[in-house]
User: Fold these one by one.
Assistant:
Number 1:
Amino acid sequence: MQSEKGLVLYQNKAFIEHIIDAVLPISRNIQLITNGSYYDYLKYNVVKDLIIDKGPIGGIYSALTQSETELNLILSCDIPLISTEIVLELIANHNSNFDATLFEDAHRIHPLIGIYSKNCLPILKKAIDEDDLKMMHFLSKISLQKLNVDEPKSHLFKNINTIAELNELNNNEYKIA
């Protein structure tokens, strides 16, 4: 995107604000994992990566390490169509026998919309130490609960990574569930 993705605008509002709006009806305990001051205007607790430049693995590790709760909702900053209903569905269907609960559609797993347990910390740390930063490698090493997403709702889980994807998002009137 060539800019901080959470600050990209969709419907005249930053992606991160759409995500926060989806979480606020459920919890006010919101922490932002970032190494910059981009989100200071939001007045939420900012947590710095404990080990920088380790991508989503490092972000999840930092979030879980610094969290006071056993289970944590992890959401990436580039999913502007996420909704309270989706988050509630994730929470309602989480089984505590698993290290993580994620959504999966016909095409892929969505690892950055999930509930993660602190049980993941040793595996995350080992991945960081070995510079094995692929999410799918990490997910293959934990007990994972996958919640199926029906095709009509799969667009709500889309992360926006390119200008082309942003243009497609802006050119389509997606119903936020």
Number 2:
Amino acid sequence: MLGSAGLLILFALGGTIPVAWLQSATAERIAENLQQARLKSINEVIDADLYDNNILEAQQLVTDEQLIPGGLQAAIYTATKNDVLVATVIETIAPDGYSGNIRMLIGIDPAGKLTGVRILEHRETPGLGDTIDQYHSDYLDVFTGKSLGNPVSSRWAVKKDGGDFDQLTGATITPRAVVQAVKRALLYYNANQATLEDNNAEDHGKQ
């Protein structure tokens, strides 16, 4: 009986150890792939030649109702060149999409102008709301160069709501959610720019 028990233990260990190793190796590869995908998306909202720091490590996590209603967490990345802030990238969420959360990346330069907007994840209706996705249309390009003063705050809405931004054919809820999420990001940046710059300076001072 002891011999049989020993054999069972050996067989169990022989099966468990390779599985555990495979899971560990796979998890590391998945994490690395996700990081590379995130970096690729960041470089679509700010030019990679503009900064020289490891932007993925220059990250702050914030929870702010002004940025994302509902207590959801946002990630803020700071891009620097020779330790000088050149852009801020906000990974935020539009919680009011037609089919749920729309995860977005928003690039902002030190003057408060948008350098780009990209969709990271959404569940919007194929053929309608999914037109916000950069892989389906150039809808997001309209935001580049815009700021809180261009257009004025009251015009940061889709045209159906009296604003300057186009809605999508057959879909208003999705672009409305995107426009408002971008506006919230600009408002947050405008209100917290000094703090973000101070945090960046402190981080460099610790290195």
Number 3:
Amino acid sequence: MRHQKKTVKLGRTAEHRKALLANQVCSLIEHQRIKTTLAKAKAVRPLAEKMVTLGKKGSLHARRTALAVLRQQDAVKKLFDDIAPRAAERKGGYTRIIKLGLRKSDAAPVAFIEWVDAPVVVEEPAADEKGKKGKAAKTPAAEAAAAAKPARKTSAKKSGATADADAGAKSE
């Protein structure tokens, strides 16, 4: 019987599980939010919160302890410089899990895990683009991607009606 055994095994060996959770926490630090299975999100939460607690201490020993667990210098730097100061007032509960439903391929429950105090990025249209009706503003990256796409070649098998529609679409 597994009474009072807290470790969620996730179907992995101890070394694999430790590496998986460390990588998940590093991704969470880097991207502020990750999408994963619900079981993994629940397993990542305690480790992520322990890392923030170390970051709040800010000592050299805490930094080295975090580096021993996470094994990524840039993630530890971002944790201590960005994430821990944001959580300085909070006494715990640094992460939240948002359930997303079931994954289509294997029906596994999927969830977001994110920092509670992560800055929210809201995109508002620019002043000159507000006047446009019903058209989404293109970002410079989207325009560059559209320009990089080669023109579609028309096939000889197309009927005249579809070829005319394609020609009309290209002229616009």
